[in-house]
Amino acid sequence: MILLAGRAWCSFRKSAERGNLSGNFKIVEQYLDYAPPVDVYRSLLLLLRHVPEQYLSGLYKITLTNSDSLRSSYRGKFWSEKRRLRPADCSGLYHDGHILLAMDQILQAYPEVFLLFPPVKTFLIGEVLYHEIGHHIHRIEEPGYRADKEAVADEWKEKLMRAFLRRRYWYLVSLARLCSPLIRPITRRWNKRAVAESSAGPG
After folding, report:
1. Domains, in order of start, for the chain
2. Three-class secondary structure of residue 37 per DSSP
3. SS3 content of the chain, % helix, strand, coil (to 5)
């Protein structure tokens, strides 16, 4: 919903890693007092390589950032589904060809040990990235069609994610269904503990 100000950087090595990725958009990282606990750049590239080229047309930038960076640059609120939200409270934002991904918001749902498993971190990033790409597709293909933009973006997210999982992690889909009853309780306990520690504060 916003555009970041200030300098952003992208190393030569990372530019080379783009390989044959379609689209002329830039990928930049702009964090404030934060570093992702795992490599998120390559997961982003992997997800983008499985998006049909026509859906990336008109996209000019993807920014990997964090909540503090958004909070320091944008203090206002915007409307989303009849609610006013702060950019720093969102996992992803989209505006006129620019996608922003708040990596701390995206990765906080799982313990760091789970993020070391590439399919987990890639799935978490994909859930947000594909939703924002859904907003982009809605804008370039169906402008003004259907008032519920979030629902449209979710529909595109599901389509893109299903296609990605079938092509890249087809062997894990069945395994995930079997393991989900075991993983969910662990995740819930982790989140409750993190909330409790945050509420308790220092000392």
Report:
1. 12-198 (3.40.390)
2. coil
3. 55, 15, 30
Which distant-in-sequence residues (6+ apart) come within 8 Å of 35 by Cβ?
none
**Phi then psi for 120, rounded to 5 degrees?**
-70, -55
Q: Mind listing the pLDDT tens digit for each residue in 6-64?
A: 333 344 345 546 555 666 889 999 999 999 999 999 999 999 999 999 999 999 999 99
* Surface-to-core class of residue 180, CB atoms within 10 Å of its CB (0-12 exposed, 13-18 middle, 19+ buried): exposed
- Structural Rg of the chain based on CA atoms: 17
For residue 49, give the nearest of 168, 191, 137 by alpha carbon. 168
8 A C-beta contact, residue 133 and residue 92: no
Length reported for the chain: 203
The beta-carbon contacts of 153-159 under 8 Å, at least 24 apart in sequence, are 156/130, 156/131, 157/127, 157/130, 157/131, 157/133
- Whole-model pTM above 0.85? no
Is residue 52 within 8 Å of residue 34, measured between CB atoms?
no
Q: What is the pLDDT of residue 187?
A: 62
